[in-house]
């Protein structure tokens, strides 16, 4: 069965957690990119995670940097940058003047963790909404930690499932080598969430993908029918005209 609009009542179910659903969708997309020839995204942030009409996450903003700019590296702006956009950049890149457009897999994991925390807290004012610092100062402390505990978004067991807190902290570790790959993140997320809950989400994503593929097949079939009908009409009209 394909998941049509009449079957979207899962939005009202108690087991549905929107933030977990979008985390799982994003996780699947990042796993695919890391296994592909692209190897990494390099620009993961909320503005590059698009949601389509079927509630699927579509990752964007990657893959064409070299074609567009003619170089493999971008410069981190030092004057008048958009500091809030830099929240999702791994600290090792903030310390560089130039960094690769496609980033690294470890840098993607850092960005994913910041987005995941933002989804869990369901805030529209960024991951550092409860840190009483100006964006410029936040980036300064991310770039140059002022203590043994680098600045990171706060985590409270009252809002964030306590089983996810160690995972998030590992993903945004100051040491890139300590950040787990997405395959491991997916496994740990399964262990942290109720098994049935994650299975339902996986099943839902699978149905959404099948539904999207089915729509593409229907559109292609109808287009072919229209083309064939137009061809017949043209032949009929041609036979009726005087020669």
From TrEMBL:
Keywords: cGMP biosynthesis, Lyase, Nucleotide-binding
InterPro entries, alphabetized: Cyclic_nucleotide_synthase, Kinase-like_dom_sf, Prot_kinase_dom, Ser-Thr/Tyr_kinase_cat_dom, Tyr_kinase_cat_dom
PANTHER family, A to Z: GUANYLATE CYCLASE 2G, GUANYLYL CYCLASE
Protein name: guanylate cyclase
Pfam families named among the record's database cross-references: PK_Tyr_Ser-Thr
SUPFAM superfamilies named among the record's database cross-references: Protein kinase-like (PK-like)
One of the record's GO cellular component terms: plasma membrane
Residue intervals of the Protein kinase domain: 1-200
GO BP terms: receptor guanylyl cyclase signaling pathway
Documented EC number(s): 4.6.1.2
GO molecular function: adenylate cyclase activity; ATP binding; guanylate cyclase activity; peptide receptor activity; protein tyrosine kinase activity
